[in-house]
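pasting HDC protein for the record, 604 residues
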Amino acid sequence: MDVTNFSSQPHWRHCYRNICTDNFVERKHSFPSPFTTSFKTHSRTKKITMSSEVVFNLEYLTRLEESARTLESTPQQRSEMMFKAQREVDAYLEQLSLDHPTGWVIPPKETQGQDKLVQPGQYQVQSGPNQVQSGPDRVQSGPYQAQSGPDQVQSGPDWVQSGPDQVQSGRGPHETEPLPIQENGVSIDEVLRDFSRIGNEMEREGHPGHMAYVPGNSTAPAAIGDFLAASFNPYSLNVASCRRAVKMQQMIVQWVGRLFGYPSACAGNLTSGGTVATMVAMTTARDHKVPRSKDYSRSVLYLSELTHDGVAKCLSTLGMREAVVRKVPVDDKYRMDVNILRKFIENDVQNNLLPFLVVATTGTTDVGSVDPVPAIRAVATQYNMWLHVDACYGGFFVLCNSAKHLFEGVETADSIAVDPHKGLYAPFGTGLVLVRNGTLLRNSNTRQHGNYMQDQLTNPEDWNPEDLTFEQSAHFRAPRVLLPLQLYGVATFRDALQEKLELAKYLYLRLKGQAHIQVVEPVLSTVLFRIPGVSDNTNRALLREITTDGRFFITTTTVKGVLYLRVIIFCYRTHRQDVDVFINKVKDAVVKMELPEVEFCHAG
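structre below
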């Protein structure tokens, strides 16, 4: 009898025993089709005769099946899990408010005077097995209790403190270890209770007081989009696998392309973030401008001193670690100095180097400044260079009429990177790359399928996402971007972004009127300020005073050798009343520092 021989595979050998003499009760569809078997009937049972080299145990297979079916959840089980998960989400989101008794951005560094954070009778929220209650002076959360009385904030046996400088954990790092991976599972209540602790041990992205870095935001429809993507789980990078999923992604890419004035011949892809989007663009630039690897060591990349560090990082991943990187100084408005750029390039050409790529930024992370793209484009064209635009932070401000002029010339760039997980409030892990000439992008990434896919029907006219990026088997990211846009409409996002621009101007004008404060006029939604004429340590002391209770999270940055306190207003939950509270905090902090009287304010 001809049978498939699994006996030579170690992971099968220990699982089965020889069953030539075993009897089994007859079962319908007892054996999978790859096994060829012969049967001899003995009364009410069937004896199975197989090659002595094949080992197979029907009872063992049945037990495996019963266990594996645990993964096949029922509608009732799914509803119960989703309901309990939603309660945890609601309990967390309730705290993303300056008015909530535990509504901090980061766990407070200072614990004295915390009774001021609790308003009697406010915010009573209950969450099933993990209850959150707030009365006159207490917040409780299941087995992990947080209490805020006259002089303390505690979180059960494991409490965390985090300010600008430190993170402390009450009993040591092991106290905050996640629930371990075990041989046998536990209840959904235990899993969710453990997971929800993350809300007390993190920078709370999406909090109105989170004004550091470029805070992440996520909307409810975006979360639902991720749930749908994971549940349907299509392979979304090939038309043959799911044409509709591909169309959804292409629709987003083309819509973003039109925002920046790109032609319909552009192509792009959703990526895991801005750095990967930049890497895909730089790969295309490398293949088009520096086709021979022997020239990598004399290739030159030009950045401004304020370009995001992720751009230069990509060179190593691209195999161009030996390439030369020139950091161009910025002018008094924090824009790339095009005259110095030109001098750098002229000097490199004279030294037999190969200028191949220049990166302009529309919304620097430190300042929010915008490089002069038309002038940089002219230089790039003169020297046959690729122009890439980093629009990861500032890009979606192009939706706002008051900011459109800042993006003049971007339509001429060879490639653009932009982050929907910033300006479109998608979850982290959502970037987007655009290449003006889509054919160049495709040439750099076209996939050559293995033999196992030789029967797949393909059409050369189809532009599959897997041929426009190095990623394969990527998450289906389109729903997290598309559902919120479809549900709320573009106008809602435009208004939210325009509000942030207006709030930045509002903060600038309010701080400009304060004694002892020097403030830099914002271009987008980032505001820099400092106390002039004092040491950097004094400005850091101001930062600590502002952030000590955890209600606001800002950081410092150093620009052109000067240390500033940096505020970015980007969270969609941040509104004027939140900015007013922040302004009062700055004023109170300055007063506490007892600085000498001045006759006028300092404005930058």
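Residues 1-47, 110-174, 599-603 have pLDDT under 50 and may be disordered.
DSSP finds 16 helices and 20 strands in the chain.
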